[in-house]
């Protein structure tokens, strides 16, 4: 797994994907930080993190679009699949490479905290809660994007399909509101990524939500392993 992880991290930077992702992330997070936090003269970063949900939804597919689709397009997937390495090692190596870049991106919040210290006391419990909320959300979204990348050899198709899939997950709350059946509505709401994420930005720590995000990450990584397993023997 280590070799694949190092290769993928390097590929992010040699391909330029890392620079595009980090530049856009820093630009937009900086804007929301200024507009929602600095501009209002407050030290609570929750408004910035609330706004970043939809941005992450569209940015993460940039990270995941090439992870497996490029292997398939360049016909290097069979060499990788027949190498003396487990499928979980392949998937997790690529997954953690994308997650590492995401952590680098969102860790800019600690630089923002320096500016917050000028305005007043930084509420570290709230800031760290928001930070880990975004990390849990990103870990789930990256797993979804990696799974979709395993289904196609076209990077743009992978990116668009991932954006669409994540956007549908974002709309779960809207779907639930428009369903009259209470049980179905509650079932859909329980699968809502947005409401679980917003709980953290409002200062509510929810262990079930943490388990939910980590379970989604595991589940979609498992789906990706099954896709590769089928391709190996197909």
Notes on the protein architecture:
There is one protein chain. The protein has 234 residues and is an all-alpha fold. 80% of the residues lie in helices and 0% in strands. The radius of gyration is 19 Å and the shape is globular. The mean pLDDT is 87.
Radius of gyration: 19 Å
Shape: globular
Derived structural class: mainly alpha
Major β-sheet profile? none
Q: Low-confidence runs (pLDDT<50, min 5 residues)? A: none
Count the beta strands: 0
What oligomerization state is this entry in? single chain
Helix-strand topology string:
HHHHHHHHHHHHH
- Report the mean per-residue pLDDT as an integer: 87
Share in β-strands: under 5%
Give the count of helical stretches. 13
Helix content: over 70%
- What is the CA-CA span between the terminal residues? 23 Å
Key structural traits:
80% helix; 234 residues; single chain; mainly alpha
């Amino acid at each position: 797994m280590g070799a694949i992880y190092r290769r993928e991290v390097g590929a992010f930077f040699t391909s330029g994907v890392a620079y595009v992702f980090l530049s856009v992330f820093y630009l937009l997070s900086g804007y929301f930080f200024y507009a929602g936090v600095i501009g209002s003269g407050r030290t609570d970063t929750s408004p910035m993190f609330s706004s970043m949900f939809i941005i992450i939804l569209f940015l993460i597919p940039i990270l995941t679009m090439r992870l497996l689709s490029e292997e398939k397009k360049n016909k290097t997937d069979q060499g990788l699949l027949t190498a003396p390495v487990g499928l979980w090692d392949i998937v997790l190596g690529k997954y953690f490479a994308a997650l590492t870049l995401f952590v680098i991106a969102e860790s800019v919040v600690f630089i923002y905290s320096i500016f917050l210290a000028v305005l007043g006391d930084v509420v570290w419990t709230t800031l760290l809660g928001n930070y880990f909320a975004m990390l849990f959300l990103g870990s789930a979204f990256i797993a979804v994007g990696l799974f979709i990348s395993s289904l196609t050899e076209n990077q743009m198709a992978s990116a668009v399909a991932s954006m669409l899939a994540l956007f549908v997950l974002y709309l779960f709350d809207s779907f639930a509101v428009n369903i009259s059946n209470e049980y179905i509505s509650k079932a859909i709401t329980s699968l809502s990524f947005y409401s679980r994420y917003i709980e953290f930005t409002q200062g509510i720590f929810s262990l079930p939500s943490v388990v939910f995000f980590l379970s989604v990450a595991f589940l979609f990584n498992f789906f990706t392993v099954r896709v590769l397993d089928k391709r190996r023997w197909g």
